C-alpha cells in the first residue's frame, strides 16, 4: 500500500554534468521552499545545528540529482532523503563517539517534570530527549504537519506503528510538561523526587 | 474513579486530534466522549500539549549561508561547469527539445520568466517587502509609479470583485524595471507584474502552474501582465477578468 520511494544514493563522486534545467527549475520551485522544514527536521534528528547544516546540504544535493525520481509529494520525499542523510551521517560518526549513542541517553520519563511554565527552549530540550523513533514521529506530525500516511512513508514504518509512536511521544511529553493528573503519579517521576 | 482514558480509545483520541479519523469514527468517538470524562480529559490534555508545540521558536530557520549554498547548486547560471556540460553530446537533443518547445508550447518559451515572477512573489512574501507604497487607494498608487517607470500601469479598484488593492512596488524582471501591483483576496496575495509588452511576444498567454503557484498571463493595451498567486486557478482567472474589466472602465471614467 505504501510503496517505498526510490531514494537517491549518497553522492560518491562528482557527477560529470549538472542537473537538467528542468530538474533545476523544479528543484528551485518545489524543493527549496522546504529548506526550513528540512533544517528543522535534521536539527531535531541530529540535535546539533552544525550537523543539521551538513545533513541538509547533502540531502538537497541528493534531491537535486534525483529530481527525476520525485513523483509528487515533494515535501515528504525530501524529508525521507533528509532522514537517510541523517542515518548516513550517524553511521559515519559512530566510531568518533562510540560512548554516546542514540538511545542510551536518559529515559525521558525519568527526567524531572517541568513546572507549569515551560519555555520554548526547555520544550526543545524535552523533545530532543525523546528516543529517536518517538521524537521523529512527533516532529513530523507536530512541527511539520505531515499526515500519518506521509510519516509512514518517510519513516518506512507501518501506519499503526506511526500512530503508537506518536501516542507514546505525546504521552511522554505530556507527562513532563502538563500538570499531573489528580490522583495519578507520572511514571518514573516519583522516585526521582525526594 | 479512574483518570486513565479508555485504553482502546487512545489511538482514536490522537487520530481525532490530528484530524485523521473518518466521519463515522468521529461520530462514534464523540458519542463516547460525551459519557467518558477520562477520555475527554485526555483529549483536552493533548490539546494543551499541542499549544506548547505551536510556538514558532520550536521551528528552525535554515542559516542564510546554507540557503545560499543550496541555491547555488541549482542556479541556472552556475559559474563552474555548465558550459562544458551543455556543449557535450547532448547538444543535438537539447536543440531538438528547444525547437519542439518553441513550436508546440508557445507559452513555455520563457520558462525562466514564469519562474522569475514566482520567485519574485515568494521573495516579496518572505522578505516582508511586498509594497513600496502600501495604500489601498488607487488614486495614490497610480501616480506613485509616475516618474519611476516609463509606462503607466492601470490600477483599477477591484474591491467589488473581492480583490483588495494592497499597494504597489517596483521590481525587476529580465533586467528591466517593472511595476508590481499587490492585490489580496482573503489571505491570499496576488503579485501582478506589469511591463510593456516585449517585442516578439507571440501567443504567450494563459495559466501556468509552478510549485503550487499559478501564473496568469495576458496582454492588453501594449502592456503585459503576469499575475502570480497561490490562489485557486479559477480565482486567478477571475482576477484577470475583473482586472481587464476594471482597467477598461477606469479608462473611460477618467
Automatic annotation (TrEMBL), chain B:
<feature type="domain" description="Putative zinc-finger">
    <location>
        <begin position="8"/>
        <end position="40"/>
    </location>
</feature>
<keyword id="KW-0812">Transmembrane</keyword>
<dbReference type="InterPro" id="IPR027383">
    <property type="entry name" value="Znf_put"/>
</dbReference>
<dbReference type="Pfam" id="PF13490">
    <property type="entry name" value="zf-HC2"/>
</dbReference>
<dbReference type="InterPro" id="IPR041916">
    <property type="entry name" value="Anti_sigma_zinc_sf"/>
</dbReference>
<keyword id="KW-0472">Membrane</keyword>
<protein>
    <submittedName>
        <fullName>Anti-sigma factor RsiW</fullName>
    </submittedName>
</protein>
<feature type="transmembrane region" description="Helical">
    <location>
        <begin position="85"/>
        <end position="105"/>
    </location>
</feature>
<keyword id="KW-1133">Transmembrane helix</keyword>
Amino acid at each position: 500500500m505504501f510503496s517505498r520511494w526510490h531514494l537517491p544514493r549518497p553522492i560518491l563522486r562528482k557527477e560529470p554534468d549538472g542537473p537538467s534545467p528542468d530538474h533545476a527549475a523544479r528543484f528551485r520551485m518545489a524543493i527549496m521552499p522546504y529548506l526550513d522544514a528540512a533544517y528543522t527536521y535534521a536539527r531535531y534528528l541530529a540535535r546539533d545545528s552544525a550537523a543539521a547544516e551538513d545533513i541538509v546540504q547533502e540531502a538537497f544535493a541528493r534531491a537535486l540529482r534525483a529530481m527525476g525520481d520525485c513523483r509528487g509529494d515533494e515535501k515528504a520525499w525530501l524529508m525521507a532523503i533528509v532522514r537517510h542523510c541523517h542515518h548516513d551521517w550517524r553511521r559515519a560518526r559512530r566510531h568518533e563517539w562510540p560512548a554516546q549513542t542514540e538511545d542510551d541517553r536518559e529515559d525521558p520519563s525519568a527526567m524531572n517534570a517541568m513546572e507549569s511554565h515551560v519555555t520554548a527552549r526547555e520544550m526543545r530540550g524535552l523533545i530532543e530527549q525523546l528516543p529517536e523513533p518517538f521524537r521523529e514521529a512527533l516532529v513530523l506530525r507536530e512541527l511539520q504537519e505531515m499526515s500519518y500516511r506521509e510519516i509512514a512513508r518517510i519513516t518506512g514504518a507501518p501506519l499503526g506503528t506511526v500512530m503508537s509512536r506518536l501516542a507514546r511521544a505525546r504521552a511522554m511529553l505530556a507527562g513532563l510538561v502538563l500538570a499531573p493528573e489528580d490522583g495519578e503519579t507520572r511514571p518514573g517521576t516519583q522516585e526521582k523526587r525526594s | 474513579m479512574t483518570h486513565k482514558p479508555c485504553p482502546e480509545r487512545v489511538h482514536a483520541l490522537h487520530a481525532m486530534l490530528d484530524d485523521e479519523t473518518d466521519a463515522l469514527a468521529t461520530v462514534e468517538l464523540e458519542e463516547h466522549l460525551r459519557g467518558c470524562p477520562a477520555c475527554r480529559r485526555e483529549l483536552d490534555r493533548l490539546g494543551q500539549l499541542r499549544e506548547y508545540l505551536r510556538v514558532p521558536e520550536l521551528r528552525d530557520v535554515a542559516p542564510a549561508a546554507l540557503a545560499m549554498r543550496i541555491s547555488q547548486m541549482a542556479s541556472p547560471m552556475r559559474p563552474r561547469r555548465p558550459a562544458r556540460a551543455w556543449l557535450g553530446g547532448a547538444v543535438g537533443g537539447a536543440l531538438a527539445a528547444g525547437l519542439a518547445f518553441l513550436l508546440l508550447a508557445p507559452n513555455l518559451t520563457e520558462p525562466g520568466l514564469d519562474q522569475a515572477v514566482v520567485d519574485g512573489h515568494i521573495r516579496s512574501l518572505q522578505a516582508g517587502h511586498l509594497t513600496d507604497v502600501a495604500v489601498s487607494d488607487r488614486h495614490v498608487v497610480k501616480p506613485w509609479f509616475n516618474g519611476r517607470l516609463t509606462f503607466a500601469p492601470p490600477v483599477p479598484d477591484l474591491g467589488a470583485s473581492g480583490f483588495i488593492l494592497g499597494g504597489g512596488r517596483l521590481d525587476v524582471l529580465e533586467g528591466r524595471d517593472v511595476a508590481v501591483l499587490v492585490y489580496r483576496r482573503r489571505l491570499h496575495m496576488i503579485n501582478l507584474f506589469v511591463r510593456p509588452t516585449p517585442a516578439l511576444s507571440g501567443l504567450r498567454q494563459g495559466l501556468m502552474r509552478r510549485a503550487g503557484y499559478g501564473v496568469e498571463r495576458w496582454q492588453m493595451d501594449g502592456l503585459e501582465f503576469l499575475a502570480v498567486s497561490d490562489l485557486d486557478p479559477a480565482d486567478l482567472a477571475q482576477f484577470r477578468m475583473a482586472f481587464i474589466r476594471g482597467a477598461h472602465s477606469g479608462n473611460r471614467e477618467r
